[in-house]
Amino acid sequence: MAQDLRREWLENAVARWEKPILHLCYAYLGDTALAEDAVQETFFKAWKHYDRFRGEAEEKTWLMRIAMNHCKDQLKSSWFRNTDRSVSPDTLPESAVPFEEHDDTVTRAVMSLPPKLKEVTLLRWYQGMSLEEITKVLRVPRSTVNYRLKKARIMLKGELEEWFNDEE
Amino acid sequence: MMKNKETLQTMMDRRLSFLDELPSCRAALMHRIAQEEAPVMKKKMSFGLVLALVLVSLSVIALAAGLLLSPTVSAARLADQTLEKEYGITFEMQTFFGRQEEELPDGTIRVTYTGAGELETPLGVYTVDVKDSRAEASWSHDGKDTAGGYDSEAWNKVQLEQMLADSRDPQSKKMYMDKAEELHAKAHPVEADDKTTEPQEDFESYYARREEEKTGALKARKLSEEEMIAVGREFIITNFELSDQEAARLELYTNSFEAGENTWYETVNGKPCFLVEYLLDEESYANQPIHSETEERHNSYYKIYVNVETGVIEQYECNSGLGGIG
After folding, report:
1. Is the pTM for the entire model greater than 0.80?
2. Smallest Cα distance from B8 to chain A, Å
3. From the CA atom positions of chain A, what is the Rg in Å?
4. Residue ranges per domain, chain B?
5. Mean of the pLDDT values across residues A124-141?
6. Cβ-Cβ contacts under 8 Å, A36 against chain B
7. CA–CA separation, B163 vs B179, rounded Å?
């Protein structure tokens, strides 16, 4: 019975979070195959440790934390695949729907951020997570998250001046 | 930050919409779970065996360069060479496999190379048994028909050569990954039956244990990090036969960014180790002719685990970064 519940939870979680996690992992790793691996690994680990999850955290926060941990391990072991080449015009695949030039510019700028700035940027502005949630995902103090977000904002502002306004 | 925070999300979603067309991981995930739940004998070494290995006195072998190698590493080196000699599987091709070493009760060290993920189905498993400096290799697909490119059920060095070429282009890479997935699904239909599962280690406990091991390895250190980096570098140059020019272009990744004190420390087969990571970037070879007479060396990523107490090489990996999981 517990197995059934666990599987049912997994089915629902995959249906709900697979694409957001895939987008997050791709934007972080810049490699489709690695991102797909990361998604599967995330759900597999979540399934294995389902008992630990119940009642302890928000589902999204928990899954994002597993995904980010896996991505960071990947980045460490294959970092060379995630430098400039991963966001070059040759390797960022064509979009399935029409996109504007600035979509491309913004995406590449975010993907080109250093890993620590990229992770907070993706969680805050791409996944729409609160500072509190990000501290739980990354397990760093709120002040650190704030600092990194400010730094990322400065870097992106330089890259994407025309897409910014002064709104904070 | 941007015009509004939804803007970045919307723009990135549009740009990355190609991801939405990728197949769901659901089927592969369920298959993996079914396998996990099945009461099969696992290849993992038992705790008892690991303990026995730790307790066995270390019979260290020395390389000409003066490097000290654990018996497992010596066996792995011989296995790598045998695999290339017998089956034409080069270091680069090994990117598509995961290598595992295991000591058998009779003292044989068994080195297995298993195709990564779903590539296991077409690539199979190569096994090299090493004993008394002699190696014997076999392949789980020995005797199977390998003609027919990616359409054949068994892929050997011919397909691996093609995969190395295809892996440079995402679309071509997708082609062989899709084909491997298809072959894997055909060979391993998902079983729906629930089976008794082993008790799994708690997620938090796993990370706590890992952290404890890393800190333990750090505390056990008797050699300086500089000394261990030098040992790791020497091993890469000697083992992978790097030229002077290539050696000069090795870039150290270990300690290359701000990280925790124990980041580069691991426990490998019960031994406290320091991880020496180096990159050899093929872009450094831009000026070389494409069809040089010498073998073209693609970008490679080396991981050498150096025992923090003895300086012995306990494990090594080379990843050309061209394959699937690598």
Report:
1. no
2. 6
3. 17
4. 32-188+223-286+296-319
5. 88
6. 22, 25
7. 12
